[in-house]
Write a structure and sequence with these properties.
Shape: globular
Radius of gyration: 16 Å
Strand order of the largest sheet: 5-6-7
Number of helices: 4
Structural class: alpha+beta
Distance between the termini: 39 Å
């Protein structure tokens, strides 16, 4: 953000070597039980776990809370989907972000749908999860990612 000049609309981090890491849209916000959180914040907690290579987080409608958090994680080689790991990841998010933001579901996927520039396509994950049409997929680099989300366990 450069006041009075430009706002690019993405959350970004610049490391000590000057490399930029894009974390996602700053206008991509979940509202869970009156609390606002960016999916990238939850994803950062998840990828901090030794078993998690990638994470995609979405908000899905909920009658009482407005939205609930649903997490899709891709595991690192040598790790397998398991109920204890699912519970551990949910608890990890709750510890770091607060109990109200504990994921409603943690699902394991082989891969996540991404653009050619490797951005995770959360809108495609959300649409697939909710059984809706994903819309424009022209920037999708890996069509298998959509199928992987649909088959997530």
């Amino acid at each position: 953000r450069w006041p009075g000049v430009w706002v690019h609309g993405d959350w970004a981090f610049v490391d000590e070597d000057g490399f930029w890491f894009i974390h996602g849209r700053s206008d991509d916000t979940l509202k869970v039980a009156g609390k606002r959180v960016g999916p990238a914040e939850v994803e950062s907690v998840l990828v901090g776990h030794a078993a998690v290579a990638e994470a995609g987080v979405i908000g899905v409608p909920h009658q009482v809370k407005g939205e609930v958090v649903v997490c899709f994680v891709v595991l690192r080689p040598g790790h397998e989907p398991a109920e204890p790991l699912r519970a551990e990841l949910g608890d990890l998010v709750a510890r770091h972000m607060g109990k109200a933001l504990k994921p409603d579901r943690v699902l394991f996927a082989r891969e996540l749908p991404k653009t050619r520039s490797a951005k995770i396509m959360r809108r495609v994950i959300r649409a697939t999860y909710l059984g809706k049409e994903p819309g424009d997929l022209s920037s999708l680099d890996n069509p298998g990612g959509v199928k992987a989300v649909a088959e997530a366990v």
